[in-house]
Amino acid sequence: MDMNFVIIGGDAAGMSAASRAKRLDHNLNVTVFEKSMDVSYSACGMPYNIANPDREIDDLVVRRAEVFKEKQGIDLMTGHRVGQIDRHNRWVSGIKSDGKKFKFPYDKLLIATGALPIIPEIPGADLAGVMALKSLDDGRRIKAYLKEKSARSVVIVGMGYIGMEMCEAFRERDMGVSMISMDFLPGFHETIAGMVRRELESNGVMLHVRHQASQIVKAGEILNILFADHGLNADMVLMAIGVTPNSSMAADAGLALGPKKSIAVNRHLQTSDENIFAAGDCSDAFHVVTGQKTWIPLALRANRAGWAVADNVCGKPTEISPVAGTSVFKVFDLQVARTGLSAAEATQFGFEPAEVVIESRSRAHAHPGGSSIWVYMAGDKKSGRLLGVQMVGKEGVAHRINAPAVALHNRMTVDEFSRTDLAYAPPFGPVWDPMLTAANQLLKAL
Amino acid sequence: MDMNFVIIGGDAAGMSAASRAKRLDHNLNVTVFEKSMDVSYSACGMPYNIANPDREIDDLVVRRAEVFKEKQGIDLMTGHRVGQIDRHNRWVSGIKSDGKKFKFPYDKLLIATGALPIIPEIPGADLAGVMALKSLDDGRRIKAYLKEKSARSVVIVGMGYIGMEMCEAFRERDMGVSMISMDFLPGFHETIAGMVRRELESNGVMLHVRHQASQIVKAGEILNILFADHGLNADMVLMAIGVTPNSSMAADAGLALGPKKSIAVNRHLQTSDENIFAAGDCSDAFHVVTGQKTWIPLALRANRAGWAVADNVCGKPTEISPVAGTSVFKVFDLQVARTGLSAAEATQFGFEPAEVVIESRSRAHAHPGGSSIWVYMAGDKKSGRLLGVQMVGKEGVAHRINAPAVALHNRMTVDEFSRTDLAYAPPFGPVWDPMLTAANQLLKAL
Question: B413 touching A, CB under 8 A?
């Protein structure tokens, strides 16, 4: 009898694993249970889609369910919400969208349940018009709501990068936008964050930092968000505080958990049960700088982990490489990127960090059209190692961050990184790339 | 008596060395002999400056001679052409711009004489209007000539990256541009080069590849460039075949030479005479991939080598890191970049290369405004090592190339590079960065 490879969750990690497993071993029975009707879509593309009322949210679908079923031979069961894993008997069970129950046996199981948006437990968080953005259905609901209510204003609770991207989306639709949060761009150095703050404000966004919403009340069609002694009126509230691993089912099944209650996996993506794998935003990973477990929900590592699970299930033992947490986002005219650790984060892992922030230019001296680029860099005084880099600027930031990311994978010292041979031409930067200038400065502090 | 540190050549390497040496040891006598009147200017910025008749070429000057003299205490002697090095008596001698001779003793000497444009030995190469671009004076002459003659057309001999940049500059000035050369973008893979070729042609540039000029004749005010059975008329000819190390004085002094007759230096930038250093475009370097000597004239390594010479002269022994040959240029709407070796180059050094070219996108699926990016990648079948990367596209190429450059410094395998954690957001690329897609493809061929 052929082996049953069962996957819970038809998003990036789940569908990557399913596709690759079927490609590696066509006789394998690959069954995916997805609670929604959507699989394989660009979740990260949602803010840009929501920005444009004329675009359909379904434009974000990369591959339709039929293609997975008919062309790839994957048993893709949409509208199937798995609720329980029975490790002893090796089956999963749950409820279909029509209310009927189902039960299915597995030999190897992949949990790829992703993450869930964090909704603060305040009165009124469940009111109509208080929304979050995680799934394509969320995006669909937000677009429908904006249209139906002709919403003109929004309060975004949270100032992380999804909040930033959505802020731009709402401004594109000419809506008034307020943001409220205790922290502005948590994890970023204050100079980098300060540039983003200035960009938001010059685009008409109202920021209420060091505050948190205590209650939301409805006054007619209007939502009133209460904080401190103030209240903000808006047509809509977006909860964008962050996400949390969707790991409760794994916890209920007795699987070990890692940082932030993500599902703990080894380098082969196996959970504490060797027949059960976890991949994507629900699972933890090794950090390239600390060597320790971390939880960083990002799309590339989800896709990559899905592939690695398929390899391991299909008898091609594969270890997943550690993550650097390299990420980038766009907010209005700014590109903001980071990789590795900030000094504050590094201190928690026993490093003795030094840090610098430098301002340089996006184009060479005397080359027209340049703008400022700020580079933050942290290094370890004990080992000399590069710990992390952050950057902000109008151009040339998004891809620049990949060079220090590769450096982190190689455990380079700041000195070694400062000696790398990087590209130069006047339209793209100074002779000494801003990252090299930062490294040269940081060397003096190490 | 204080030590005499003498530098021949006041360009990138020479002035970097002078400034740093004086900063490290203020009592050191630092004397720079520069044959022209210009020091410290952005040579790479010249094409962009020439593109604009309203800009002064002197806008490219980064630091004026007076600053070096008065603020930094450097004895900067412009208009001093050194012609001879007497290693036995340790002095240099030459001729000043007023025709008088000079002679000066050194304890440590740096040769930073740069490179010279290659002028093919064909009849008419010395005619007025046949020009090359290397020094600021060249740029000055070209701008003056274009203005004085109201030049409407140019033939560029050579199709390397300076030819490309100048081609765009002339088109900016609405001039008709023809190019003629045996090779189109030597060193680049044909697919990458093909994209550049298409870009040039769609910008109205006439290309005559696989031809070479045999003679230039003057007919009234017009130059006629003869090749095969044809002739091209133009107001001006730009010789942009390439450059060659300006090493004849070093050779005359009996110093050892390296690849392409560049001055051979060890990792401390010492020539075969331990009291004489060489840095910048006149000297060779170790290649990060082959470990062997190479000659790659690029601005960053010149600046960096200048610094390292100063360190070594001032008693701070410093080894220069190897070069990867990372470079980028812009031509019309395209960015073209490379690092490391092509498969063809790698074969000459005993590698068994495999290569791929992939087409990917500059932005994510369904994100508006994206365009194609082509990535060429070469790896070694024996060791699995990454050997080199080339890229072309309208956006996101210039800084992307730095990630594989850092990978080359770390001697990463293609497999290791394919596992690096790179940034993703829909405005800046697909989830799988085009470089990762190329690496994944290349792995199949290794």
Answer: no
Element at B311 (helix H, strand E): helix B299-313
The alpha carbon of residue A431 is apart from the nearest alpha carbon of chain B, in Å, by 6
pLDDT, tens digit (0-9, with 9 covering 90-100), for B89-105: 999 999 999 999 999 99
**DSSP string for residues in B209-232:** ET----EEEEETTEEEEEETTEEE
3 state DSSP class of A366: coil
- Looking at the DSSP bridge assignments, the partners of residue A206 are A178
Q: What is the pLDDT of residue B62?
A: 85
B339: which chain A residues are within 8 Å (Cβ-Cβ)? Answer: 421, 423
In eight-state DSSP terms, residue B299 is H
ipTM: 0.96
Find the residue in B nearest to A57 (Cα). Answer: B366
- Tell which A residues from 79 to 138 touch B, by Cβ distance under 8 Å: none
Residue B8 is inside which H or E element, if any? Answer: strand B4-8
Q: How far apart are the C-alpha atoms of A254 and A251, rounded to whole Å? A: 5
Distances, alpha carbon A340 to alpha carbons A120, A325, B365, B376, in Å: 28, 6, 27, 28
The whole-model pTM stands at: 0.96
Q: Looking at beta carbons, which residues of chain A come within 8 Å of B327?
A: 423-425
Beta-sheet pairing, B80-86 with B91-96: antiparallel
- Of B327, B330, B429, which is closest to A427 when you measure between CB atoms? B330
Sheet containing strand B206-209, strands side by side: B130-132, B236-239, B153-157, B176-181, B206-209
Confidence of residue B113 (pLDDT cuts 50, 70, 90): very high
> Hey, is the C-beta of A24 within 8 angstroms of any chain B C-beta?
no
CB contact under 8 A, A365 and B419: no
Mean pLDDT of the A395-420 span: 98
